[in-house]
Each structure stands twice: as structure tokens, then as C-alpha cells.
Amino acid sequence: MIACGTRTVMRLIGVLWMMVVMVPPLGAAPTHVVSEEPVSVEKLGDGGWLVDFGKVTFGNLQIAAPEGMSGVVEVRFGEALKDGRVDRKPPGTVRYAEVRQHLIGGQSLRVAPPADARNTKQPEAILTPPEWGVLFPFRWVELHGWKGDLTLQNVLRNSVFLESWNDEAASFECSDPLIQRIWGLCRDSIKATSFAGIYVDGDRERIPYEADAYLNQLSHYATDTDVEMARDTFDHLLRHPTWPSEWGPHMVFMAYADWMHTGDREGLAQRYEAVKSKLLMERVGPDGWVTSNEKQRSWNDIVDWPQGERDGFEHREVNTVVNAFHLRAVQLMGEMARALGKEQEAMAYESRFEERKQAFQEAFFLHGRGAYRDGVGSNHASLHASMFPLAFGLVPESEQDAVAEMLVDRGMKCSVYGAQYLLEGLFQAGRGDAGLGLMTAKGDRSWRHMVESGTTVTWEAWDQKYKPNQDWNHAWGAAPANLLPRFILGVEPAEPGWSVVRMAPVPCGLNEAKGKVPTPRGPVEVHWKKTGTSYGLKFSLPEGMKARVLLPYRGSGKVSKEEVPLPTRREGKWIRVVPEQEGAGTLLLR
């Protein structure tokens, strides 16, 4: 058990958040309106017109009536299509709206549905500039009552995106067209949902939530160069926290992700004191565990969402998932404290992490089953009780293979939110092949299902039947946007600010992959290819960046660069290239 004095210090760190803490001012990343032509217009049998903009975005219409045209048109906006027409009765909160608009010849008029009372409710919802009009997620429009022919120039969409968004900032291609399409869907989802300048949960509420924001942040970093949107969302959530237990530790994750991505010590220092209150230290009991009272067990301890995605998780006073989040947050706080030169605090966090990590294993691990129990007093082992510890590095190396195998056997028994952590754990444990298999599995619990449905923005849940009121514009379902660059291309920061990149591509059954990963220093470009027993890796790094390269062991294990042999060493399943790489080059392993 942790010494009383240390535990008291830790509790004070978490609970006595000083009133003098300076929280950064609120803001929102700049967004702007982009005028887009339709990809097609089609005359319908009843005389109406179907307009397709190709992808769902948040926006409204600009209708230009030719000279001499007047009258009223009925405009139908929709996210879904049914039998070749805009679906007027879509399920759940899939969007549909209709507006009657009087046209004036020679004038261009903005047309938008009325505002939704729920997603404009104050003070929770994030509002967009009133001069832009109501923004609505839609891909298709039907026009009825239009006189004469309709051209691409008559109907434009005013779409809103993050002002700094760069379509060329990131790319991903591979030998499996389905995986490539999944990445494209997820990248487009991050762009489409940037309309508010702050990460929101979708169109139903337009409210930031901590877990949504963290997953959004990871995928945003992997697809664009902006860093302010994540910071603005973080600062908003400091003032407007939400209710789930595990969402607080996600704020620690966000602060750490910002630190690793930017290397901005000043930004870290500015937010460090505020984030201490997110460790759940106020819930730590005398025995060192984060505990849950009756209300917390029945409501706040979210485990996964919606409730039906919890794989039968048994809520206990001391539960595995909440304590896993707490330990991971404590570990990251220790790293951030040390980066800021706060040695005493760093030592306190590190001491707590090491002691509780061992206690965690002793209390929760079910020997012989390769799994973790849901909590103290439970013999049930849900997917979640094991996938979070594996993703957070809490599973001893000697048990990782068994835990990963158990997760593979159970399959995708978690939500699209939980899938971020399930797949992350599998990739880290060397089971990326199974991770890709789950990502592309047939059935209705994979990204294959989303792609094959025709959607252009990821959903809040795997299917309507799992969450009848789900949004069709939820970026927390876009996990492959960050997982594929991090593990298939193998590109992650090894040091804060990307001064050193870890480059460790994992083939996972693919024969080839290439792509571009944005960083604050410039893009990292990677192209690897397997040919027989050889493996080639071509890379290009921005100036001032070094790469620690690990290649999957194969052949003789000998590596050359432009035909010149390089010193290497074996590290488990990897071959490490001993000299750190700079600039550009091609490595060959054979």
C-alpha cells in the first residue's frame, strides 16, 4: 500500500486545484465558408430535380434563379437516399429538412432549414456565426417547382470547414483498396466535422465531450496541420466538463498528445495545473483504489457507449476500467511534470503509478484465462476490462500475447469509441493483422459496413440497431484515420515536437503501403513494399528531424541503405537500424 504521506500529497494535487490557476482564454479555431458545385443534377420523373454534392458537409444552399424566373420551390435537404430520392423519413437523428423558398429572378438567395432547438441550446451547444445562416449536414437536395432546366451553377452549397484545412496535408494508400477507402472515409469525417471550430459530438447536440475530443484530436493530427482546434476544445472543456468518469482522464490524454505533437513547453505549462483535477484522485480510497459509489456505478462509470456495447461489464465499487484510466493518466502526468522540471511531483506520480500498476495486476488479472476481471469481487471478464489495460501498457509483457488472443477471439464487442482502444492495443501487442481484420470484417460491426453503406462521414455507432438515435456525422467513429498512419505506416513522434520520429511500419498482411503524415516540422513521407523475402522502405523527413527506424524481422536481418550495409540489432520481432536516419533514403532488409 502506498505510504500515507505520498497518498495525501497525491490527493491534494488532484483535489485542491488552486483558485489562482490561470486557464487559457476561450476561443475557437477559425472556420470559413467554401462555395461548392454539385457533382451531378438529375431530372426526376415527377418533374423535380435531385442534386448530389458527392459528400456530406455542414452548410446550406445558395440558389441563383435565372432572369425572368419566379415562384416558390420546395427544397428538401437530406443525409440519406432511399430508392433514388432523398429519404424524407430517415431513422433516428439522421437529418432531413424541407423548406419552401420564394425565388426572385436574377437574384442569388441563401436557403437553409430552420435552426434546431436542441443543437443550439445554450450554454451547452457550440454556435456558428449567425451571418452564415443555419448549417445543416446534407449531401443530397431535391428541388420541386423549379421552372426550366437546372444547371450546376444554379445550386451551390455553402460548406463550412476549418479555415486552415489542407486536403494535401496527408495521404494513405495501400495494397488493399478497402482499407484505403476506410482511411478516406475517416479523413473526410474529420474535415466535415470541423465546421464549429471546436470538436463537437455530432449534429444532435453539437456539444464537446472529452472522449470524443481526444479521438478527434488524434485523427486530426494525422490528417491536417492545425493544432489550435484541439487546444480550443481542451480549454472549452476545462470550463464545461461533462459527466462520465473516464472522460476526465481523457483531458490528461489530450494535454499529453498536444505536448508530444507540438513540443510546446509553454503551452504545457499553461494547462498543467488545470489538468491535475482530472485524475480522479478525489475518489481514491484508503486502500489506493479509485472507488465508485452507487450513482457512479449506475451512471458515471461509462465503460462504453451506448450501454449495450459494454459486453456484459459488471459494475463494482472498484472497477478495472476506471482504475486503468486513472493509472494511465497518472503515468502521463508524471512525464509532463518531469518535462516541466517539477521533480517532486514527477516522483510522486511515478511512485504511485509503479506501485498501483503492480497492485492492478494482482487484483484484476485472471491467470489461466488471459483476461482481466471487471472489478474486485467479479469473475466476469468483459472485453473492456482487458482492452483498456492492453492499450495503456498495463499488461506485463509475459501476458500480452494471451490477452491479445483473448481480445481477438471476442471480436468487436465494443462501440466505435471503444474500437480506438481495442485496435490500438492489438497493434501494440503485435496483432495488427487481427486489428485490420476487425476493421474490415464482414457484418455490421466494422468500417467495411460503413463504407459499403455509402456514407461519407462516420457514424456514432456501428449500425442503427445498436443506437436508434445515432448521428451519421460523428468523428469519434473515425479511429482508422490515426491508427493506419501510426501503425501501418508506422509513424509516431518519439520525442516531443517530432524532433525524433519512431518509424516502425507493420505490414499486417499487406504487400505495400505509402503515405504522408503531417507534423509541425513538415510532412513525413513513407513508402514500404514487400517483395519475396526482402522489404524496402523509402522515407523522406523534414529538415531537423531524425528517425528511429525499426523494420519487421525477415530474411537474414541484414539492412542496407543505397546498397551500403548498416549496423543493426535484433529487438524481438524487430530489426532496429542503429544509426538514426535523417533526410531521405531507401532502406532494404533482406
Automatic annotation (TrEMBL):
Protein name (record): alpha-L-rhamnosidase
Enzyme class: hydrolase
Alphabetical UniProt keywords: Hydrolase
GO biological process: one example: carbohydrate metabolic process
Reactions catalysed, as given in the entry: Hydrolysis of terminal non-reducing alpha-L-rhamnose residues in alpha-L-rhamnosides
EC number: 3.2.1.40
Keyword Transferase assigned: no
UniProt domain Alpha-L-rhamnosidase six-hairpin glycosidase: residue ranges: 168-486
Gene Ontology terms, MF aspect: alpha-L-rhamnosidase activity
Organism superkingdom: Bacteria
Protein species of origin: Haloferula luteola
Residues covered by the Alpha-L-rhamnosidase C-terminal domain: 490-561
Keyword hit for Hydrolase: yes
